[in-house]
């Protein structure tokens, strides 16, 4: 398969918080991209960024050599590719589907088999780094699947990420991503709890954050989430609680699937599901802090 800027057309499905800046970067890097999102605001934003918007996913995919999906979850990806209005039969022969969403890895393996029957190679290439790094093109990208296809799409991925890892067979990128988000959510939960306890004792939360960030309690949340989103209670990181709760379920399902005891993963997944039930799908994931404030003192 030959994939290059001058001849390959890319269909980009999902122009949400992450998909919009990612698709826009591909356009800026000189790739020919047709984007689709059923949400008019998302499609309009891509058009405003200079992107070409298709009127349907199938139109975006007609003759495309690559389809990138940046959708809420693996179920949406499966529907977009192989569902009744799916795009698989629109793609060019030998096309590569790159699922950059955070999908469940076991489902990804199954989808890859289904697509292989139609002559399409599926790579999973989920990302980490959030909206800011999506804009900057400095995402971490975890690529699972066929190494020849992974090498072929690398120039495209290089427009999106600063660290690109090949993680192994198809689904391994998605497994890595879910486990990353489990570690990230556990770190955020711990940091928010620590700040609440410290504040009640009389410690200053901003000073606590400075100390954590040069001490052994430092993690990504202490570095980039506490001061902008948690301490001022803006809760506006650009990553929803619904998506984080989904990733935590994925990580916990994976632990069960592999038969690995993971009591902390189970506890964190349950806590975040409860937070989602209480705060609703629109809440930002950093609002876990607000949820913790509502917990009884003794559980
Ligand atoms: P989002 O909800 O902002 O965007 C998803 C978009 O997909 C929406 O605009 C929706 O209208 C669109 N969509 C749904 N079905 C579609 C279809 N069939 N065809 C085309 N578009 C469709 O979500 P997001 O924050 O951009 O996250 C997307 C994926 O990336 C998720 O899997 C998420 O877990 C993952 N992720 C998000 C972040 C982040 O910081 N937001 C970081 C890393 C990974």
From TrEMBL:
<feature type="active site">
    <location>
        <position position="177"/>
    </location>
</feature>
<dbReference type="GO" id="GO:0016054">
    <property type="term" value="P:organic acid catabolic process"/>
</dbReference>
<keyword id="KW-0560">Oxidoreductase</keyword>
<dbReference type="InterPro" id="IPR036291">
    <property type="entry name" value="NAD(P)-bd_dom_sf"/>
</dbReference>
<dbReference type="GO" id="GO:0016616">
    <property type="term" value="F:oxidoreductase activity, acting on the CH-OH group of donors, NAD or NADP as acceptor"/>
</dbReference>
<dbReference type="InterPro" id="IPR029154">
    <property type="entry name" value="HIBADH-like_NADP-bd"/>
</dbReference>
<dbReference type="InterPro" id="IPR008927">
    <property type="entry name" value="6-PGluconate_DH-like_C_sf"/>
</dbReference>
<feature type="domain" description="3-hydroxyisobutyrate dehydrogenase-like NAD-binding">
    <location>
        <begin position="171"/>
        <end position="288"/>
    </location>
</feature>
<dbReference type="InterPro" id="IPR002204">
    <property type="entry name" value="3-OH-isobutyrate_DH-rel_CS"/>
</dbReference>
<dbReference type="GO" id="GO:0050661">
    <property type="term" value="F:NADP binding"/>
</dbReference>
<dbReference type="InterPro" id="IPR006115">
    <property type="entry name" value="6PGDH_NADP-bd"/>
</dbReference>
<protein>
    <submittedName>
        <fullName>NAD(P)-dependent oxidoreductase</fullName>
    </submittedName>
</protein>
<dbReference type="InterPro" id="IPR013328">
    <property type="entry name" value="6PGD_dom2"/>
</dbReference>
<dbReference type="InterPro" id="IPR015815">
    <property type="entry name" value="HIBADH-related"/>
</dbReference>
<feature type="domain" description="6-phosphogluconate dehydrogenase NADP-binding">
    <location>
        <begin position="9"/>
        <end position="168"/>
    </location>
</feature>
<keyword id="KW-0520">NAD</keyword>
<dbReference type="Pfam" id="PF03446">
    <property type="entry name" value="NAD_binding_2"/>
</dbReference>
<dbReference type="GO" id="GO:0051287">
    <property type="term" value="F:NAD binding"/>
</dbReference>
<dbReference type="Pfam" id="PF14833">
    <property type="entry name" value="NAD_binding_11"/>
</dbReference>
């Amino acid at each position: 398969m030959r994939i290059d800027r001058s001849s390959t057309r890319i269909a980009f499905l999902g122009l949400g918080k992450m998909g919009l800046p990612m698709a826009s970067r591909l356009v800026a890097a000189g790739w020919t991209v047709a984007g689709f999102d059923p949400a008019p605001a998302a499609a309009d934003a891509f058009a405003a960024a200079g992107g070409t918007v298709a009127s349907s996913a199938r139109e975006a995919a007609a003759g495309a050599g690559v389809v990138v999906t940046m959708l809420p979850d693996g179920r949406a990806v499966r529907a977009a590719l192989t569902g009744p209005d799916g795009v698989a039969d629109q793609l060019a022969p030998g096309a590569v589907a790159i699922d950059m969403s955070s999908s469940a890895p076991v489902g990804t393996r199954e989808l890859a088999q289904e697509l292989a029957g139609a002559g399409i190679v599926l790579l999973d290439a989920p990302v980490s780094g959030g909206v800011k790094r999506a804009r900057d093109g400095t995402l971490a990208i975890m690529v699972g699947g066929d190494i020849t296809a992974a090498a072929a799409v690398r120039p495209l991925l290089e427009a999106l990420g600063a660290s690109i890892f090949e993680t192994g067979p198809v689904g391994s990128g998605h497994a890595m991503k879910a486990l990353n988000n489990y570690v990230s959510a556990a770190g955020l939960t711990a940091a928010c709890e620590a700040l609440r306890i410290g504040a009640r004792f009389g410690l200053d939360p901003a000073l606590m954050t400075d100390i954590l960030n040069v001490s052994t309690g430092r993690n990504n949340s202490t570095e980039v989430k506490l001061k902008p989103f948690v301490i001022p209670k803006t809760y506006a990181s650009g990553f929803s609680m619904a998506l984080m709760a989904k990733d935590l379920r994925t990580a916990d399902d994976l632990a069960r699937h592999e038969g690995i005891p993971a009591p902390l993963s189970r506890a964190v997944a349950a806590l975040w599901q409860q937070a989602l039930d209480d705060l609703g799908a629109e809440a930002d994931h950093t609002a876990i802090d607000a949820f913790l404030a509502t917990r009884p003192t003794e559980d």
